[in-house]
Amino acid sequence: MLRAHCAEIASKKSMMEESRRYDTKHGSVTLRRERAGDAPFLLSLFASHAGRALCKAGLPEDAVAKLISFQHRSADATHHAMFPNAAYSIIECDGEPIGRLIEEDEGDTVYYVDFALLPERQMKGLGTAFIEMVSDEWAAAGKAARVEVLVNNEPSLKLCRYCGFAEVERSANGYVQLRREMRGRHSSGA
User: Fold this and answer.
1) Residue 76 lies in a domain
2) N or C terminus: fewer CB in 10 A for the chain?
């Protein structure tokens, strides 16, 4: 019993701390732990997503930059406060950062707290292939995967459904909760 528990801890530590490589038909990516030097990239990644709506609002550029910086610091602090044991990782392609993945191991499930790719890397199949491979890796370790997506974020909902995530519930706070069961046990049929 103790030996099995120690093996489970070693497996979890390995998946959450190692650099992991994924070779897809859309390219190869490496997942590595975030470092302090990644802060400028993480801000630019956040700005590439959050900035779209703010720019459409017609605000002056300096106001948009300040709002994005504030929102980024707030989101980052919230993630670290709510998920102190999560794996905060950078997705790289050819040594260059292209995205971020935050994984929280919840025991029988892994929760993808955040997943984002640079806009120029989206809609090409890489994100889908990557999430499928990461989810398959967790399934091989005996864990389902889950995500929460804003109800109006149709591109993310489409990606999740394509990867085999099924809607579990819609919460009152505007999020759709989706879950991908382990392949081979309770496959969601995708």
Assistant:
1) yes
2) N
Q: Is residue 185, in this structure, part of any structural domain at all?
A: no
Kindly write down the DSSP assignment for every residue of 110-132, as one continuous string.
Answer: EEEEEEEE-GGGSSSSHHHHHHH
Which DSSP helix (H) or strand (E) runs through 84?
none
Quote the domain boundaries for residue 21.
2-180
Which tokens hold the place of 59? 């605000």
φ, ψ for residue 74 (rounded to 5)?
-65, -45
- Provide the number of structural domains found in the chain: 1
Percent with pLDDT over 70 in the chain = 87
Bridging pattern class, strands 109-117 and 144-150: parallel
pTM to 2 decimals? 0.83
pLDDT at 13 over 80: no
* Cα separation values, 66 from 70, 124, 130, Å: 6, 31, 32
Alpha-carbon distance values, 157 to 53, 63, 113, 128, 165 (Å): 19, 30, 14, 11, 9
What is the CATH classification number for the domain harbouring 135? 3.40.630.30
Q: Does residue 51 belong to any structural domain of this protein? A: yes
